[in-house]
Amino acid sequence: MPDRDGMDQDRPVAIVTGGAGGLGSAFCRALGSRGFRAVPVDIKGTERVVDVTDISACRDLASELQPVVWINNAGILGAGSAIDQPDEIVSSVLAVNLSGVINGTRAALGVMSEIGRGWILNVGSLAAWAPTPGLAVYCASKHAVRAYTTTVAMEMAGSGIRLCTICPDGIWTPMLEEVLDEKAAAMAFSGGRLLDADEVAKEGLALLFDTNRLTGSMPAGRAALAKLASLAPGLLAHLDQPLARRGQALQRKWRSRISSGTGRNGDPLSTPASLQRLYASKGLGLAEDRSLSPQAGRWPEVPSRQG
After folding, report:
1. 266 CB-near residues (< 8 Å, 6+ apart)
2. 119, 138, 148, 189: the active-site residue
3. What are the pLDDT digits (tens) for 108-119?
4. What does pTM read for this prediction?
5. Where are the alpha helices (DSSP H) in the chain?
6. Distances 59 to 53, 111, 276 between C-alpha atoms, Å
7. d(C-alpha 123, C-alpha 276), whole Å
8. Is 148 among the residues known to form the active site?
C-alpha cells in the first residue's frame, strides 16, 4: 500500500495563493476533500514561498507542479481614505490584488493550455460590484479582477479551461482581524455577520466545478444590494452612514469577543492562525489544530481542447 506521500503525488495538483491561513487554508481543505493535492503558497508561512507579484516566480511554480487547478486567493485590504492613504499601501493593494491575480492566471494558463484542461478560480469580493467608501483602492482592484476574469473566460471558451470569480462579503480571517480598530474598514463589517472561511471555500469550489456561471456572489441578500448599488450609486450614498455605523458596531463586538475569547454563543472561537497567536498572547489557549491533509476523493472532468 503506498505511503501518504506516494498517494499525494498521484493526485492532481491544485495551487492556492495566499495559502498560509484564513480563506487560503479553507480552500486547501475543501480541495483535499475533492481529491486534489492542495499546495498552499504565500510570501511566508508555507513550505512553498512565492511572491504573486513576480510573474517569473508564478510561471516557475506552474511549470514545476503542472497544476490543473489554480486559485488566486492572495489579497490585502488596505483600508484608508483616498486623500491620505500612503502611496506604498496603494501600490501594494494593486500589485497583490490585481497584478497577482493576472500573474497567477497567466502562469496557470500556460500549463493548462498544453494539457487542454484546467480550472482557475479568482477571489473577488462584493466590493467588485459596489462602491465601498474607505476601501476605494481595494474596491477598484476587485472590480478589475471580476472584469479580467470574465474577459479571459470568454477568450478561453471551448478550450477545456474554465475561469470564474467568487465574490464574498466580509470573511472572518486575519485580514479583517487586522482592521478591527480602523473606522475606514467599517463597511467590510456592515453585513451584520461575517462569513466563515470554510463556507466561502465550499461555495467557491461549487461555483468552479459544479456550475457554468462566471461569477458567484454571497450571501444572496447582500449580493443583491451590492449589484443594485453598482447600478444606482446614489442609493448607497443614502445608506453609507447607517451601514458604516453598523459596521463599527460589529467591529466593537468582535473586539469584545477576542478579549473574552468567546464566539457567538459563548463557545470558544474557531480561529485562524493569526488569531490563535493573538489569543495565546492573552493566555486564552484557544488554538485549534486544523490539518491540511487532503482526503481521498474524485475530481470532475473537463472536456479536452477541441481540435
Report:
1. none
2. 138
3. 999 999 999 999
4. 0.77
5. 4-9, 22-33, 55-65, 87-94, 100-115, 136-155, 174-177, 197-210, 220-231, 233-260, 273-281
6. 11, 9, 33
7. 24
8. no
